[in-house]
Specification:
Elements (H helix, E strand, L loop, with lengths): L7 H19 L3 H20 L7 E9 L2 E6 L3 E6 L13 E7 L2 E7 H6 L8 E5 L4 E4 L1 E9 L3 E2 L7 E5 L3 E4 L1 H9 L1 H4 L3
Parallel strand pairs: 2-11, 5-7
Antiparallel strand pairs: 1-2, 1-8, 3-6, 4-5, 6-7, 9-10, 10-11
Length: 190
């Protein structure tokens, strides 16, 4: 076996080139940082192109009134607070439970069970604070989920429902509930 002589000068040059490249890669410069960030932005933009939902859905909060399940679109809500009782308002209609204090502001609370089913709600539960500055009292908060548009079917009856989802889940229409309670004479059948 024949030995090949080593070219130590060539080896030292290659090591020096590698060390210079490593130093350049580890040294931060504004131009290099800008190039790296631009490259990452392009990669992230390519990844997000495939993340579009297959169908538009409705983000909703699922709740119970007795044994019945309902949903309300999240766009209608500002927050959910535990129900700890209401201050009754003298002369109020049976659909109004009273008012609650939410961070220093009084909010009227509607007995959602009375409006939708004709029965009275329980003494526990939660209040869904609507964007329109009033609350809907519900018995139990169940879930947050997106209701796919293909799940929705028009309601068979009921002026307070937009649609049914999955056959038994009623999606509330907030506008008729509010208009019935705010202007009860206008909503009475003729």
């Amino acid at each position: 076996m024949r030995r090949v002589p080593l070219d130590w000068a060539a080896i030292r040059r290659r090591l020096q080139v590698n060390e210079d490249s490593l130093q350049e890669a580890l040294t931060e410069s504004p131009a290099r940082t800008k190039a790296i960030l631009r490259q990452r932005a392009v990669q992230l933009a390519k990844q997000n192109d495939g993340n579009k939902p297959a169908a538009e859905g409705i983000p909703a909060l699922i709740f119970r009134l007795g044994q019945e399940r309902y949903a309300i679109a999240l766009k209608e809500l500002t927050e959910v607070v535990p129900f700890a009782g209401c201050a009754e308002v003298p002369g109020g209609s049976p659909q109004f439970l009273g008012v609650i204090n939410v961070r220093g502001e009084l909010r009227p609370v509607i007995d959602t069970a009375q409006v939708l089913t004709g029965s009275h709600s329980t003494d526990s539960g939660a209040v869904l604070i609507l964007r329109r500055q009033l609350g809907l009292k519900v018995d139990v908060i169940e879930d947050l989920r997106e209701i796919a548009s293909e799940e929705l079917a028009p309601p068979v009856q009921g002026q307070f429902l937009q649609a049914f989802a999955s056959g038994t889940l009623g999606l509330l229409d907030v506008d008729p509930i509010i208009s019935t309670l705010v202007n009860p004479k206008e909503s009475q059948p003729v």
